[in-house]
Amino acid sequence: MAQHLYLTKVTHNAEKKEILVEFRNKYNKIVNRFEFYPFLVLPKELEKEQVQDLLLSIGLKGFQIEKKNKYLKIIASSFSELKKISNSLALHTGKKPLTLEAERQFLIQKNWTYFDSFIFEKDMPQKELEEKKDVGFLITKEIPFNQAVELDETETESLVEKFSLSALLRIPLEKVPASLQAQTEMLLENIFFSNGKGILWAKDNSFYSAKEFAPYGVYDSVSTIDFSSAWPKLITNNFFNLGIDTINCSCCKPIKLNDTNLLPSALIEVEFLEDAFYFESTSITFALKYHKSNPFENNRKEKKKEFFMKNYPVGPFFKNQKTLLPINDAKKLLDEKKVKLASNHTPNWFCKNKESFLSKAIRKYTKQGFLLSSSFSTHQNTLFTKNDSSYYFTSALFKSINALVQELPFVLVNPLSSFFSPLLANSILSVQEATLFKFREFSEKKGYRILYLNRKNAFIRGFSSLSLAKSFSKETSLPQPKIHAFSSQTTLG
Ligand SMILES: [Zn+2]
């Protein structure tokens, strides 16, 4: 059997314009040199000549532009030159191209990552898929891996987790950030960079979403239905195909109210047929926003109290008054013949032709996670022996992938993230709210009582919530939420 070596270190020598890569196993160490020029990528929609003229006109010279399949690649003579180019493009186009560290760019370009397995043919490294990686000697340097596990399993596991994140994010071990949010931000850097997408330069502060609320107290027989695993699925093209490249595309503008690619964030203009009319919105965010920015605040406060409503009602509206409502509200009121359709809509939709790069990335990582989980569950008893480092490494990779993918939607709706875009964030939130609203309606129809609903969890009173979650996903064709925990006593708030 060929001896595998693992990629352990990448260093950039800017002066010599090269990258040094170190490969190791228990017995050997090989260092290879690669010529390397730092680069950045731009959307392929930009014209090569235009970008070239722009950069030349501001006095930049040390660069070369290549037209690739997915993007325009600008190669710079040095990293400082690259930063200048990125800053100039940000000022002139409003979007800042990402410049990652040279080492990470190199790994992305090669499609390599830390702890990948390699064999050497004629002194050249060839990446190989190896199911059972023997990386324990790298993780616990002084003592054998199995001894480290026996001494302190928790500590060893957290060490292995760091190794798995270094591999997934293509960054050196010592640069793995502590918070899941910061780790996910790095994952997004890699995803955006590989797709030639820059980040928004000008920040928009008008974004707004409803805060969560919770009743306080201790409840009996409460189960938690966890939606976190459903949110990334909703972004993929199996459901809403969300992304900065697919929302409000030019090729699929909807023409009818029932077109399947309309997003719940679409606003439809309706005309009211009754006086002093109130209704309960399907969107908490819309209800709150409406409440804060429209007259008759006190009337809504009183109504809310009077009818023990969880959220502010929307209204009052008067006969012949026209207004924009979220599409799900508009459809409901049209069905109930409380309004008629007007004509000045603000639709939001997703593309039916092209898959968003975010969807592709989520599906890729989900598949990778699935392959890892099946490899360690089928081999748990045969291939892996107790305290085997490859078992720990594989399961840490699986856990890290899951955690990162589940965090993605939360980072994308966070205005503090570099990857925040109001249109995408709005669409993600509207899809989540619509799902939760459907779930609430569905559960109540089946006799369950929802005590509390936030963006991650629904707390439900009643037994057999697993069958509720299953039938919900079956009847609505939405992803099935997970039953997180069941306890006889749960404290909320
Ligand atoms: Zn389209």
Q: Can you describe what's shown?
A:
There is one protein chain. It contains 15 helices and 19 strands. The protein has a five-stranded antiparallel beta sheet with strand order 3-2-1-8-9, covered by helices on one side. It is an alpha+beta fold and 493 residues long.
Helix/strand layout:
Layout: E1 5-13, E2 18-24, E3 29-35, E4 39-43, H1 48-57, E5 63-67, E6 71-76, H2 79-93, E7 95-96, H3 102-110, E8 117-121, E9 124-128, H4 136-139, H5 145-151, H6 153-169, H7 180-194, E10 199-200, E11 217-226, H8 230-235, E12 267-272, E13 277-279, H9 284-293, H10 297-306, E14 314-317, E15 322-326, H11 327-335, E16 339-341, H12 357-379, H13 389-412, H14 422-445, E17 449-453, E18 457-461, H15 465-476, E19 482-492
Antiparallel strand pairs: 1-2, 1-8, 2-3, 4-6, 5-6, 7-10, 8-9, 11-18, 11-19, 12-15, 12-16, 13-14, 17-18
The protein binds zinc ion.
InterPro entries: DNA_pol_palm_dom_sf
